[in-house]
């Protein structure tokens, strides 16, 4: 699977509100599928399916040997997504700093000409 | 030099395919609005220094259309087009936006200009696209420079999962 497909998987996994709730819950600490199902009006099987999608996306891991198999949030992947939005923000900020400079140069005279056209 | 500088704020709604950009400027709404609607001013800031912006069509009136092309060393990089759905001077600008590289995609962009004290302006630009996937792809497009590094890091993380 290409890196692009993996990225798409991460974003697709988080496009679902139930899975975002699960991620939010796991941000507070590890939990079993049974514990995750409690606040949702869902069966353990349904929650388990959501957890599986999150696992496939690399957002959640589960220990293989432990009896309870608690789900663990891979916070690093999550931090990476925050970093992507931050890059997008910085790019917009750079564009607006160019605009700041242009706005400073625009004097009243050219403003009159502009609105008259 | 103003000390009260407010950096760009980005809001990516978790449940809706939208991106909101909020930013304040040290200029009155008339001037900021003109920077978005006067093609001679618009081309001065929309692209980075290495990119020239060529205006192909520009009719900044309600119902008008626009198209521009990004050029690097005279070579065409990308073209964008859309309509000026509503041009309400100094208050509100509603446009559609399509990158010709993804011709089925269209974003509806509503920008409001709010006058603040001391001759300042806040813009609030809301973009609405067709799906969460498209919205996220747009957010990811901001990382052009660091893209390889980001992919490599994610690859490592995902490989460790295996």
Q: Give a short account of the largest sheet of chain A.
A: 2 strands, antiparallel
Q: What string gives the helices and strands of chain B in order?
A: EEHHEEEEEEHH
How many strands appear in the DSSP assignment of chain B?
A: 8
Q: Tell me roughly what share of residues is in helical segments of chain B.
A: 25-40%
**Rg from Cα of chain A:** 23 Å
Which oligomeric form is depicted? Answer: heterodimer
**Major beta sheet, strand line-up of chain A:** 1-2
Assign the structural class of chain B, choosing from mainly alpha, mainly beta, alpha/beta, alpha+beta, or little secondary structure.
alpha+beta
Please outline the helices and strands.
The complex is a heterodimer of chains A (117) and B (162).
Chain A: H1 3-13, H2 17-27, H3 33-37, H4 44-56, E1 60-62, E2 71-73, H5 75-105, H6 108-116
Antiparallel strand pairs in A: 1-2
Chain B: E1 9-12, E2 18-25, H1 29-37, H2 39-45, E3 52-58, E4 64-72, E5 75-88, E6 92-99, E7 107-116, E8 120-128, H3 132-141, H4 147-161
Antiparallel strand pairs in B: 1-2, 2-8, 3-4, 4-5, 5-6, 6-7, 7-8
Helix pairs in contact in B: 1-2
Molecular structure report:
The complex is a heterodimer of chains A (117) and B (162). Chain A is mainly α. Chain A has 6 helices and 2 strands, in the order ααααββαα. Chain A has a two-stranded antiparallel ribbon. The longest helix of chain A is centred in the C-terminal third of the chain and has 31 residues, at 75-105. The model of chain A has no long low-confidence stretch (mean pLDDT 80). With 162 residues, chain B is of the alpha+beta class. Chain B is 25% helix and 43% strand. Chain B is built from 4 helices and 8 strands. Chain B has helices spanning 29-37, 39-45, 132-141, 147-161, and strands spanning 9-12, 18-25, 52-58, 64-72, 75-88, 92-99, 107-116, 120-128. Chain B has an 8-stranded antiparallel beta sheet, with helices on one face. Chain B is globular and about 40 Å long. Chain A binds chain B through residues 3-4, 6-8, 10-12, 15, 17, 20, 55, 58, 61, 74, 76-77, 80, 83-85, 87-96, 98-104, 106, 111, 114-115, 117, and chain B through 7-10, 12, 14-15, 21, 23, 25-27, 30-32, 34-35, 38, 41, 44-46, 48, 89, 132-133, 136-143, 145-146, 150-155, 157-158, 161.
